[in-house]
Specification:
The complex is a heterodimer of chains A (161) and B (401). Chain A is of the alpha/beta class and 161 residues long. Chain A has one domain: NADH:ubiquinone oxidoreductase Nqo5 subunit (Beta Polymerase, domain 2, 2-Layer Sandwich). Chain A has a five-stranded mixed β-sheet. In chain A, β4 and β5 form a beta hairpin. In chain B, strands 1-2-3 form a three-stranded antiparallel β-sheet. In chain B, strands 6-7-8 form a three-stranded antiparallel β-sheet. The longest helix of chain B is centred in the N-terminal third of the chain and has 29 residues. The N terminus of chain B is likely disordered. Classes of the chains: A alpha/beta (161), B alpha+beta (401). Chains A and B meet through β2, β4 and α3 of A and α8, β6, β7, β8 and α12 of B. β2 of chain A pairs parallel with β6 of chain B, so a sheet runs across the interface.
């Protein structure tokens, strides 16, 4: 199935939770969905036979600009059987970046979500072990946010070099 | 220890389990392939839980990338998987090139000569990477000799890489639009002939060596005792955890991006994709440590075959760089994946049309494969942990980025 057909299937099934089909930008086009529906949509994408998205290639947090009000979490999915892919995007308000976890659907999401939490401060509800992954536990702030300012010192060590 | 005494009946049950013990393995343990710390919850010698703690080699690749122009990012990809840096360069350049191609107004094509050089060098790099994996795996499991053999051969490859780009480990050879010309090699010149002859000499020498290594380690009974049937990863589990490359094929999934989603000029070459099978006489089952290891040994032969096909055709004439005015992808985003020696290496690039990316995410194959360790190691012995880490072939530089 191509992206338009997948979009139509999702739109028919989930209605308003599927926000729009983004074909404006060059490169990959994506389907925007509302964060609250991510678990239902993911389960549907995995379990429907004609879709069968059995691999989560990549899960990334995105912050486009310090001026934006929103983050995004981007899911790149692929089906080994049907050999088709889809890109899902969920906008999240920066003031309260929370969305349900999909780590029980694709286990690879476990560490990818921890990484997004670590670097963007996006909270994945229902994740069983949401701790910092790459940075030390006592690190302050979320470095990949565009408005992040690095600290001068960490435990007595100078940070900027 | 849970109390098993009942105060009422005063019967003391037999408690076969000893006290649980927390042991830190690493961060600088010789068999952790970099700086990895495992928190092991042990019951005697049985592993109840192995929790990986990563991040010791985190160098903020993604943050750095946001402040650099695209060509400046390439040396940073070298430092991700430093034993297969050519493939990392290529993965990133492919992603940027695909995004630039999405802009219909700007047309450019990678010169044929560059494509051939890319495939040739990257397949040699794949051999070098698998050799390191083979050597260190033997050493992890107590066989020191294979390591010396592997490094002897890998050294010849590193000298070859030094001849094309001047570096042994972090190459910065593959550039956006072609390959580096830092050491000129004119088409048809004596330099080119010497270079190709040297590769051919290496391949002639190396191909029989693979069989010798199989005799030395693969069919070695001490080695197979440690790896056969250990830590079986089913195909479903491998897919769910996002294990790719040799780890996925070791679980019996017939999947290789070079064949199934051909990029560059891989569709012009004949090569097999080794997939694990049950081997009853040895006892090996699909998805165990031995199968994952064996896939790499078989893949080296396929890489040799691809290199030979290129040498038979010879390198095409022409330039090695496309004519690019500036590396400035259009506003948009792209996820592109390529088959690195350790699996699917993906780069997710978001561009706003300026010379610097807004977001670069490196999807590392080792990162996903390592996350399966916790489930794989449950209930096994401490020594098996070493066997698993070596068999999923991680490089911590890529896990932590």
């Amino acid at each position: 199935m191509n992206l338009e057909e997948i979009y139509q299937v999702l739109k028919d099934k989930f209605g308003e939770s599927v926000l729009l089909l983004d074909t404006e930008l060059s490169g990959d086009h994506s389907i925007h969905i509302s964060p609250a529906a991510i678990v239902e949509i993911s389960t549907f994408l995995l379990e429907t036979e004609t879709l069968a998205f059995d691999t989560l290639m990549c899960l990334s947090g995105v912050d486009l600009s310090a001026k934006d009000e929103e983050f995004a979490v981007v899911y790149h999915l692929y089906s080994m059987n049907h050999r088709h892919k889809v890109v899902l995007k969920t906008p999240l308000p920066k003031s309260n970046p929370q969305l349900p976890s999909v780590s029980h659907i694709w286990k690879t999401a476990d560490w990818h979500e921890r990484e997004a939490y670590d670097l963007y401060g996006i909270v994945f509800e229902g994740h069983t072990d949401l701790r910092r992954l790459l940075l030390p536990d006592d690190w302050e702030g979320y470095p990949l946010r565009k408005d992040y300012e690095e600290p001068d010192f960490y435990r007595g060590m100078r940070v900027p070099y | 220890m849970e109390s098993t005494q009942s105060t009422e009946s005063k019967i003391i049950e037999l408690q076969p389990f000893t006290d649980e013990m927390i042991v830190n393995m690493g961060p600088q343990h010789p068999s952790t392939h970099g700086v990895l710390r495992l928190e092991l919850r042990l019951d005697g010698e049985v592993v109840r839980e192995a929790i990986p703690h990563i991040g010791y080699l985190h160098r903020c690749f993604e943050k750095h990338s946001e402040n650099l122009s695209y060509p400046q990012i390439i040396p940073f990809t070298d430092r991700m998987d430093y034993v297969a840096a050519m493939n990392q360069n290529w993965g990133f350049c492919l992603a940027v090139e695909k995004l630039m191609e999405a802009d219909e107004e700007k047309e450019f094509a990678i010169p044929e000569r560059a494509e051939y050089l890319r495939v040739l060098i990257c397949e040699l790099n794949r051999i070098a990477s698998h050799l390191l994996s083979f050597g260190t795996y033997g050493m992890d499991l107590g066989a020191f000799t294979p390591f010396l053999y592997a490094f002897r051969d890998r050294e010849r490859l590193l000298l070859l890489f030094e001849k094309v780009c001047g570096a042994r480990l972090t190459y910065n050879y593959i550039r956006i639009g072609g390959v580096s010309e830092i050491i000129p090699m004119e088409p048809g010149s004596i330099d080119e002939q010497n270079f190709l002859d040297e590769i051919e000499e290496f391949l002639d020498y190396f191909e029989p060596q693979i069989d010798e290594y199989n005799d030395l380690l693969t069919s070695n009974s001490i080695f197979s005792e440690r790896t056969v049937g250990v830590a079986v990863m089913s195909a479903e589990m491998a897919l769910s955890y996002g294990a790719t490359g040799p780890n996925l094929r070791g679980s019996g999934v017939d999947w290789d991006l070079r064949r199934d989603e051909p990029y560059s000029i891989y569709d012009r070459f004949d090569f097999d994709v080794p997939v694990a099978e049950d081997i009853p006489e040895l006892g090996a089952v699909v998805g165990d440590c031995w199968s994952r290891y064996k896939i790499r040994m078989d893949e080296m032969k396929e890489s040799v075959s691809i290199c030979r096909q290129i040498l038979a055709e010879g390198l095409p004439d022409g330039p090695v760089m496309a004519e690019l005015k500036a590396v400035r992808p259009p506003k948009g985003e792209l996820y592109f994946r390529s088959e690195a020696p350790r699996g699917e290496l993906g780069f997710y690039i978001v561009s706003d049309g300026t010379p610097k990316p807004v977001r670069v995410k490196g999807r590392s194959p080792c990162f996903s494969a390592l996350s399966a360790l916790q489930e794989l190691s449950q209930g096994l012995m401490v020594a098996d942990i070493i066997a698993i880490i070596g068999s999923i072939d991680i490089v911590m530089g890529e896990v932590d980025r």
